[in-house]
Specification:
By secondary structure, this protein is of the alpha/beta class. It is built from nine helices and eight strands. It binds S-adenosylmethionine. It catalyses: a 2-demethylmenaquinol + S-adenosyl-L-methionine = a menaquinol + S-adenosyl-L-homocysteine + H(+).
Amino acid sequence: MTRAKLDKKPQDVAAMFDGIADRYDLVNDVISLGQDRAWRKAAVRAVDAHSGELVLDLAAGTGTSSEAYVGKGARVIACDFSLGMLRTGVERRGGASTGGVTFVAGDALHLPFADETFDAVTISFGLRNVSDVDQALSELLRVTKAGGRLVICEFSHIPVGFVDKLYSTYLMGALPKIAGAVSGRSESYDYLSESIMAWPDQPELARRLQGAGWSRVAWRNLSMGIVALHRGYK
Ligand SMILES: C[S@@+](CC[C@H](N)C(=O)[O-])C[C@H]1O[C@@H](n2cnc3c(N)ncnc32)[C@H](O)[C@@H]1O
């Protein structure tokens, strides 16, 4: 059994994602009732990549969150530290660097890129899994060009108490069971639920962005706050 705990030890997190890589995208569609596709589209719109720009999609996993940027004419570096997730992405796309997406193995806490490399940086459903969120936000700032932007797409909290309670019941009860039936790895999805419940709410994450040096920080909720998009500029 491989699952991470809330201390998010990097080797546990990477091994957990290695273990669910083959069914990762299918499970997402099932447990979100297909909403994940709409959330990804909203993130792409928020990044607003232009032709010729270089975008970092950090914690890109299988590259599902990366592909949409190519349609905008941007080049994307899909970076992750789970070799299992990267391998699944590379096999699916037919190469490590095809059609504008290049997969790179790297750790969010020590990014393998020079200062001021990217026009835009983004991270979808990844920041919650890193062991040191503030260090990851600083690293993202370091590799972004002056004036460049950051978009974070992450599970968040519903600001209406009783709806949030109902959602928590789904998170802690049905979600791991459904995901377990599809993936055969329910323990990994216990971690998903626990990590969402323990994640900072929207204002607190915004403060963390500001603390890391990001400017003009703002957020907006998707699906009533189940997911939030945070944005900042360098
Ligand atoms: C839930 S998946 C998200 C994948 C993709 N962004 C998506 O939207 O489908 C989280 C990813 O974060 C990656 N991750 C977690 N901590 C990381 C770190 N310190 N450095 C790089 N990747 C990390 C995991 O390996 C995993 O692939």
